[in-house]
Amino acid sequence: MFGTFTEIERKIINDKRLSREDGIKLFSCNELSWLGALADYVRKKKCGDIVYYNVNCHVNLTNICTSLCKFCAFGREENAKGAYAMSVDEVIAVVEDAMNDPNMSGLHIVSGLHPSWTFEKYLEIISILHKKFPNLYIKGFTGVEITHFAKISGKPIKNVLFELKEAGLQAIAGGGAEILSDRVRNLLCPKKATATEWLEVAEVAHSIGIKTNASMLYGHIETLEERVDHLIKLRDLQDKTGGFQTFIPFPFLPKNTVLGKEVKQTSMWDDLRTMAISRLMLDNFKNIKAYWVMLTVPVAQVALNFGANDIDGTIHKETILHDAGATSPRSLKEDEIIKIIHDIGRVPAACDCNFNILRLIN
């Protein structure tokens, strides 16, 4: 079947790991329906028909950032137009607004790297939120932010993570991985965590019982080989620790970024191809996320048949990606997510930030 891809299909059917060469070869495959069917076969075998989602609220504490990556439309210099830094009261107000949803279960907290905020300030915010909203699961910060906290506090990463865990943090967000290539990072985001530092945060977090997520930002200046290498680096660490919960392939949204005039937005074809290949290469990840905010709702729904089994959540009010021109809604209602999942014959499962099922909706 499809000539050169027969051996890859045989490996998948027999639960054999794909090589770097296999991954690169898959990115040359023009048989999208075959890729999708193979990824969906693996998804069903590994995960069954459950699709995970959260009833969650995104809280972006500040867009003031020392990094100002070329692919980011969210970050601002401190005195720039549109720059903001939320007070504790403002953070609480955002969460209280989200609590109008009786099924609200979790917070997703990520921000810019503020030049003058201390690590203690971030700790205080997590601690206050945990005490005021004890029934909400808190997923917060990326490997980039944790590295930043270690540098500004002078503390080892393990100490930073222990203190965040004691304050109420229960999982770490998957952002900031971008492409785990020094070449790419030196060109696009030289002022923030290196590939090695991002992976170190994940490994240390796993060693002390904090689950993390992983992502890949694709469709800018990376090569297809670098996409495959990125997946293999995540797969290698997962072999070692088993601490990654879900993988999120993020298509780059170029509007309003420095790269906006140089790079075109990815096609649906590339998004679905990348989703499927991620499922096939990441054989030790249970969950693959179709992040509807970046993909759009219709593409995310299709992606659930290209290897994905996680669609993120209601979000409440998304900011970072809409600054980059995302055309999706800023939030979805829970019944809308349930319908998206039911429409393709799958079973919606509301979960917390560690994928513990709270409700099954048959």
Number of strands: 11
Are there runs of 5+ residues with pLDDT below 50, and where? Answer: none
Mean pLDDT: 94
Specify the biggest β-sheet.
4 strands, mixed
- Indicate the percent of residues in helices: 40-55%
Note the total helix count.
15
Please give the CATH architecture: Alpha-Beta Barrel
Q: Structurally, how many domains make up the residues?
A: 1
**Rg:** 19 Å
* CATH homologous superfamily assignment: Aldolase class I
How far apart the termini lie comes to 37 Å
How much of the sequence is in beta strands? 5-15%
CATH topology annotation: TIM Barrel
Biggest sheet strand order reads 9-1-10-11
- The global form is globular
Order of helices and strands: HHHEEHEHEHHEHHEHEHEHHEHHEE
* Oligomer state of the chains in this structure: single chain
Tell me, what is the CATH class? Alpha Beta
Please, could you describe this protein's structure?
With 362 residues, the chain is an alpha/beta fold. The protein has one domain: TIM Barrel, CATH 3.20.20. Helix content is 43%, strand content 14%. The protein contains 15 helices and 11 strands. The strands form 3 sheets. A 4-stranded mixed beta sheet has the order 9-1-10-11, with helices on one face. Helix 3 crosses helix 11, helix 5 runs parallel beside helix 7 and helix 6 packs across helix 9. The longest helix has 18 residues. The protein is globular. The two termini are 37 Å apart. The relative contact order is 0.16.
